[in-house]
Specification:
338 residues; seven-stranded antiparallel beta sheet; Immunoglobulin-like; 2 domains; Jelly Rolls
Length: 338
Amino acid sequence: MKTKRYICFVLTAALAFSVPKANAQVLIQYWDFNATIPVGGAGGDSLGNATNPLTANQVIGGLTAGHIIYSRPTAMYNPTLVDGILDNGTQGSNIYDHSNSNDTGGTAAGNLFVRTRNPSDSCEMLLYIPTTGYKNISLDFALSASSSKGPNYGLFSYSTNGGSTWNKLTRAMDTFNIGGIFHPDTLQLQNPVTAASAWYPVQINFSTVAAVNSNANFVVKMLVAGLNSHEQTSGNARFDNFSVWGTSTTTGVDELSAQAAGYDLYPNPAGSFVNLSGHYTGNKIITVYNLVGQTVSVTENHELQTTINTSSLNAGVYFVEIKEVETGNKYTVKLVKE
């Protein structure tokens, strides 16, 4: 996305959580690859093949786990090439890192990534992502490369019928540009950030596609392409922290801006407690959720200010939902626990 602003993205990557997800999205499917072993692949075979797909490491309660398959059904330039290789590498990204078990510094063997190894011409990465019960779907992931020899492009498409037919991405999805020119289906896997083996944030927003909502057969496909993918016998593209976000379709009232409604959460980041203040004098139910949508605490109060004990929370990012009982309105604000 917005691939011309490489330096800006590097500087802001560490601030990725400073902007709350639109409409209080929750993490519904997540792959961190930290337990995807062995490093180096299984006897030269590809991780994520049709026999052994890569199942999502974290799934929101009640939703079927998604999976990833990586293969080369037909080599465009050289039909004699064997199936593409997807294997592990160490020192994965801490961009979009929502793992329950990771090395957040990104320096130990416990934080892995997956890499598509050249020759990778026409290899496909298929992400099967059930979204049943969720809408406003978006996909985040971290991208890097081994060097300037990594594959040049990833050509994206999506399906809402399990792969029977495919659709290109659109400008409405806020998709990729290369040198200021938009290519709605083409992600530049090679850019000044990735070629230096640094991690680069990518986001695709499917919220404008109604058919993606609450769909058990939603699939995202990336086709590897470009000169490097069929001319190089070394080099790879690297992927980590595939994160799928959505909002519940069962929410009766649209979530509104907490700030616009007069709610303030402080101190934020919080230590052992946080205060929620506002102008609403009626009864409120205040629920704290973690990033995978699990309820952490529930408080009911009709006072203008509520103090929430956060001393038992682990450091990380949470969402605080304020439901006004009489009006039915819901407001959500992000909370960071130090």
